[in-house]
Structures are given as structure tokens and as C-alpha cells.
Write a structure and sequence with these properties.
Oligomer: single chain
Strand content: under 5%
Radius of gyration: 38 Å
Order of helices and strands: HH
Helix content: over 70%
Number of helices: 2
Shape: rod-shaped
Number of strands: 0
Distance between the termini: 43 Å
Length: 158
């Protein structure tokens, strides 16, 4: 039974490892969502700026305003590029964590299967031991109740 207690503890530790991996994965997915929301917001700013610029393009434009507009668009483009790298980095982290989660799930499933097989093996052994004891007890009762009693050698007469 100590073996089963040890195996149950190992399975419990594997479950904790899997749960920790899943929690880390959930955190990474939340961070990815925040990063994607930021990207969407930057892209929205860029679209709005382009639309405002397109609406003004019909008349004369002060060169200073044109310069500020270009700088603004460049900064937004730079921020979008940076955010793309953040998204790619987050996706890489998620992919690596997914591999960790899958490995933890695989290990846990293997440990559970092994524990189940061990439990079944021990149950079969216990059943066989019980059957052996029952057979020996029945043989003893049979020999004591037999009219001739047991032979001096302890063997059944032939």
C-alpha cells in the first residue's frame, strides 16, 4: 500500500505542475489580449489620422501642419511596428507554454495509467492470496472432517 500512497502523491504533484502550467498559459493569453487591444487601438488611431488628413487634402495646407502630420504618422507607424514585435513575442511565449502544458498533461496521463495498472495488479495479487488462503482453509476442513483423518504424511490417500 505504500507504493500506492507514493504513486498517488506523485500524481498529485503532476496535477499541481499541470495546473501551474495552465495558470501560466492563462496569464500569457490575458497579456496577449491586452497587447492585441493596444495594437487595435494604434491601428484605429492611424486610420483616423489618415481619414482626417484625407478630409483636409482638398485645400491649402500649412507646411508646419504637414510636417506635424507626417511626424505623427511616423510615430504611430513606429508604435505599430513595436507592437507587432510585442505580439510576436507574446505568441512565442504562448507557443512555448503550450508545449509545457501538453508535456504536463502527457506526464499526468501516463502516471494515472501506471497508477491504475499498479492498483489493478495489487488487487489481483490480493485476490489470489485470499483465494489461496480460502483453498488452504477448505483443504484443512476437508481433511479434518474426513472419516480417516489426515494421513501421517499430511498427504491425501491415493
Amino acid at each position: 500500500m505504500n507504493t500506492l500512497k507514493t504513486l498517488d502523491k506523485v500524481v498529485e504533484l503532476a496535477e499541481q505542475r499541470r495546473d501551474a502550467a495552465l495558470a501560466a498559459m492563462a496569464q500569457l493569453e490575458r497579456e496577449m489580449k491586452v497587447a492585441q487591444d493596444q495594437m487595435d487601438q494604434l491601428e484605429s488611431y492611424a486610420r483616423e489620422a489618415q481619414q482626417r488628413w484625407a478630409a483636409r487634402s482638398g485645400g491649402t495646407i500649412d507646411p508646419a501642419v504637414l510636417g506635424h502630420q507626417r511626424q505623427f504618422i511616423q510615430k504611430i507607424d513606429h508604435a505599430i511596428g513595436f507592437q507587432r514585435s510585442v505580439l510576436a513575442s507574446r505568441q512565442d511565449q504562448i507557443d512555448r507554454q503550450l508545449a509545457v502544458v501538453q508535456a504536463a498533461e502527457r506526464d499526468l496521463a501516463g502516471l494515472r495509467r501506471y497508477t491504475d495498472r499498479k492498483r489493478q495488479h495489487l488487487a489481483v495479487q490480493a485476490q489470489r492470496q485470499e483465494q489461496k488462503q480460502t483453498d488452504e482453509m477448505a483443504m484443512g476442513i476437508y481433511l479434518r472432517q474426513r472419516p480417516g483423518g489426515p494421513s501421517p504424511s499430511g498427504r491425501l490417500p491415493t
